[in-house]
Specification:
By secondary structure, the chain is mostly beta strands. It has one domain. About 0% of the residues lie in helices and about 45% in strands. The chain is built from one helix and eleven strands. The strands form two sheets. Strands 1, 2, 5, 6, 7, 8, 9, 10 and 11 form a nine-stranded antiparallel β-sheet that branches. The longest helix has 4 residues.
């Protein structure tokens, strides 16, 4: 018997906005100030139909792959039923700031959040995505804060229908870090120290079974 195929139909509604801090006219000397701040974000609603059960996160919004086929006593696939869902939890808000030069470098920063929560039990929870300070010299950049994992290729993110951005093959995760980047021409070399935050590893042996034991 040939296994049932899988497909997913998302419909995206995207509203982009960029708001200045103030609409008032400023004196000429203030306009030349290198300090600026802007707010941006979007309202997004996803609608999708899965032709069968899938392995996913965030109520099916973050899709990884179709679930395995499990036949019942009549040979019918227990994971073969379709489902429909929709969600607006990936709506996002961000603030970006550029400041005066410091230590001979251009300075900038960003903070960004959405409503998809930290875990599946935290759906609709306000979640920090990115928050960092960046110093940029001619051939060096220093990033301090939370940003994409160093192995996440920001410049080559695959364009896919699902929210997963190529996971599980792409390391779709953000980490607190201190990353120093040397760039010359088209090549870049990264030196990074990272920590674990939202999806911390339990280690090669998992969580000990007696972790909550007493006495």
């Amino acid at each position: 018997m040939k296994a049932k195929g899988y497909f997913s139909w998302p419909v995206l509604i995207l509203i982009l906005s960029s708001l200045p801090v103030s609409g008032e006219e400023k004196p000429q000397e203030e306009k030349e100030s290198p300090v600026s701040f802007g707010i941006s974000g979007f309202v997004k609603s996803d609608y999708w139909i899965d032709s069968r059960s899938v392995v996913s996160a965030r109520e099916g919004l973050f899709l990884l792959f179709p679930d395995r086929k499990i036949p019942d006593i009549h040979g019918q696939d227990l994971n073969g039923d379709p489902s429909f869902n929709f969600s607006a939890i990936t709506s996002r808000i961000a603030g970006r700031i550029s400041g005066p030069d410091a230590f001979g470098a251009r300075t900038s920063g960003m903070i960004e959040a959405d409503f998809s929560g930290v875990t599946n039990a935290d759906i609709n929870g306000f979640r920090l995505r990115h928050a960092f300070l960046k110093l940029e010299w001619e051939n060096w950049d220093l990033l301090l804060g939370q940003w994409w994992h160093p192995m996440f290729g920001v410049d080559v993110v695959p364009t896919v229908i699902s929210l997963n951005t190529g996971a599980p093959f792409q390391p779709f995760i953000r980490n607190p870090q201190a990353t120093l980047t040397y760039h010359r021409g088209k090549s870049r070399t990264l030196f990074s120290m990272i920590g674990q935050r939202d999806n911390a590893s339990d280690g090669p042996f998992g969580v000990p079974l007696n972790i909550f034991a007493t006495g």
